[in-house]
Amino acid sequence: MLEIKDFLKKKRFKINKKKIKISILEIKNFLHKKGFVISKKKQSTKEENTFGSLTRTFLSSLIIISIFSIIPLVTDYTKKNKVLSKDIENELKKLLKGQDSKLDEELNRIFLFDDVPRLEEEPTDTVRLSASTIEELFKSTNYNLNDVRKNKLVKPISLTLLPEEIKQIESVKKRKDLFIQIILPLVIKENNIIKLDRKKLFSVLNKNQNTKAENNWLNSKFKQYGVVNKNLSTLKIRMDEVPASMAIAQAAKETGWGTSRFAQEGNALFGQWTWSGDGIKPAGADDDSTHKVMKFKVLQASVKAYQRNLNTHSTYKGFRSARAQFRDHNKKLDSIVLTEHLDKYAETGKQYVRILQQIIRQNNLEDFDDAKLLPESIDLESLI
After folding, report:
1. Are residues 126 and 273 in the same domain?
2. Helices 299-312, 317-328: crossing angle, 10 deg rounding
3. Domain span at 60
4. CA separation for the pair 192, 151 (Å, rounded)
5. Residues in a beta bridge with 316
6. Are residues 205 and 75 in the same domain?
7. Shared domain check, 94 and 68
8. Domains identified in the chain, total number
9. Residue 136: inside a domain, yes or no?
10. Does 118 reside within a domain?
11. For the whole model, what pTM was predicted?
12. pLDDT, block means (10 residues), the chain with 384 residues
């Protein structure tokens, strides 16, 4: 500081509190001699920083404005195109968490068999064909059980009535084979319907939200399977197929391989009882008995009602639980094991189960459990 004062004195500047007038160049030269470097700060840096800051501010504002502009559109689209009722959403959460305390317990019977009469109202050819005509039909279409056992493919031939002459066929094997050929396509057809529904169910369950159409479909299935409170776990257990071997064995037992009066007069393949509506009264029933055997216009309706009965009635909850365990372990359904839970299907109980298992084994009916019905439509091709 003293050197700067000496310099100023030499230049005859007065040092006091008054304003000092001095040349910038002279100060610069003096500082340079003393080893100081003086350079002019670039103005562009500030300008560049200012420009960059403005750019970032502009882009941030643009992004924020865009987000707030899009949100109402997305919300509106979701409301219009995505609908998931609170009840179904809650049940889905329970299903994922394994909370199913009321699993497969309650049953709403009101709509259980609503689709059976509709099936009977469909335009079908209900002309009763003779046994010989049916045999010729099967022969001309190369439909025989040996090929089915080998190739696992079944011709989509749906007969509506059993032939009267089946009881007159003397060869037991021939009579059994004809009966199986008639019943097998009907059972697989019904299983295919369930498989497609089950496939759709899992597709719906794998989504975070459902469309209005999917929601309506779910509600219709809740009614169809008598599911109370829209319990998805219950629907998952009830909506499943019945092994072909088990269905054929029960049909064979209940109809005497198609020869019973109930089968011939009412297409009743499974001896289901009814206490209301139209039916056939058993010959040996008491006069005060009110139960009848359900009758149907077509055989397919009998198969549908049978499967719906096993899939919903509380008596067969054990059957459905055992079937679900096979599914949970990715195992093939075993009809021998599953028939153990049909002891209440008939008054003979465990004896009835043993007879079913004997029919399955003696006739190698499990060969048909993995048989596929040749497709009648594009949708069914996925099941082949």
Report:
1. yes
2. 80
3. 46-81
4. 18
5. none
6. no
7. no
8. 3
9. yes
10. yes
11. 0.73
12. 51 46 59 58 49 63 64 50 51 52 83 80 74 96 97 95 95 97 98 96 89 94 95 96 98 97 94 74 64 88 96 97 96 98 96 98 98 74 54
